[in-house]
Design goal:
single chain, 363 residues, two-stranded antiparallel sheet, 4 strands
């Protein structure tokens, strides 16, 4: 049984906000594909949500991470992230092949199958990607392995002698931050020369910044600053203003592409301010226990695996009914439908084949 009173509900609400934004943003693109017109306000949501919808997941993942050796991390998170990555990827391949079955002969089916499979593994083509959303599972796996390697190899502090009578101690946290900045600079240079990086390594490098921030929040007890609701109102206003300024600069991080648009520094400022904005807001409402929010929260990775198929199916079935009433109403209604259906499917899979979605079987 789940003890709802002992849960950190701000985490559940943060994950809900993030997955809600992911579905909404992807829905806006789906509407465009189906020729359904949306209003100006939906484009504002699209651009503003881009600032922090993915960084929230990295941040929360870092907050929940517990120090383990790289070998154990590989074994543990391969089951939790890579197995569902291939499971939902293969579903995407099968559905894609079924869509074009009338246009393919036996040889073409085999060729197209391997093309889709290689695209799934390489993660560098949005056209032939059978399930674009699950790139995050692969990237998060890499982030965790990168961090476990860095964290296990670096000592708590290093003494650096600059001169015979002068030395300075560099803390572990500073060294890790330096390594993360260095990796991002290398990625920036590679992007500048248009060098392609495969397997979502670029998205993992960018995500490492937010993952480590979440890790420090837990390790240093920084989350305690957000436990006072009056202060959280001030934080809410402050980080909203900063996020809006970043939004106005048209700067954001394109995680799947492993690139930045606009100003790189403003893009990071926007993402971090968006994270803290969500943390402040969710801590204000953290005393509200909601079972549906909990179910959506614990199934966010499964929702990522299913949402591409569900949003296309639901959008096609409803044919823009709710959008005709109002674009925002349509977005919210369809998003909630997708989340509810995903939770129902996840519950069924978890009951019979939990390993497929990264959950250990109930003993």
């Amino acid at each position: 049984m789940v003890n709802y009173n002992k849960r950190e509900w701000w985490i559940d609400y943060s994950k809900f906000i993030a997955i809600f934004l992911i579905v909404v943003i992807h829905l806006i693109y789906t509407f465009t594909t189906f020729g359904i017109k949306t209003g100006y306000e939906t484009q504002m949501i699209l651009k503003f949500g881009y600032l922090f919808h993915v960084p929230i997941f990295y941040f929360v993942s870092g907050y929940l991470y517990k120090d383990i050796l790289p070998k154990i991390a590989i074994k543990k998170y391969f089951k939790r992230l890579i197995v569902p990555f291939f499971f939902f990827g293969l579903i995407g391949i099968i559905l894609t092949l079924l869509t074009y079955i009338n246009y393919l002969n036996n040889k073409n089916i085999i060729f197209y199958f391997f093309k889709l499979l290689f695209t799934l593994i390489l993660q560098k083509s949005s056209i032939y990607n059978p399930n674009g959303t699950i790139w995050f599972l692969l990237a998060l796996f890499e982030v965790i392995i990168f961090f476990s390697l860095i964290n296990s190899k670096i000592k708590n502090s290093y003494s650096v002698k600059l001169k015979e009578f002068f030395s300075i101690k560099i803390k572990k946290e500073i060294l890790i931050i330096f390594i993360i900045i260095l990796l991002n600079l290398i990625l920036f240079i590679l992007n500048y020369f248009h060098i392609t990086i495969f397997f979502c390594v670029d998205a993992a490098i960018i995500g490492l910044s937010f993952f480590y921030t979440g890790y420090l929040f837990k390790a240093k007890g920084m989350i305690d600053y957000f436990k006072n609701k009056k202060k959280n109102v001030l934080f809410l206003v402050l980080f909203l203003i900063i996020a809006l300024l970043s939004y106005a600069s048209h700067s954001s991080i394109k995680f799947y592409a492993g690139k930045w648009t606009g100003n790189l520094i403003f893009a990071y400022i926007g993402s971090f301010s968006g994270i803290f904005l969500v943390v402040a807001f969710t801590n204000i409402i953290s005393n509200i226990n909601n079972k549906l929010i909990y179910l959506i929260s614990i199934n966010t990775l499964t929702i990522m695996g299913l949402e591409k198929f569900l949003r296309r199916g639901v959008t096609f079935a409803l044919n823009g009914i709710f959008i005709k009433i109002h674009p925002l109403i349509g977005l919210c209604v369809i998003t909630f439908l997708i989340l509810l259906i995903s939770v129902f499917v996840a519950t069924l899979i978890n009951k019979f084949y939990p390993n497929l979605i990264g959950n250990p079987p109930n003993k």
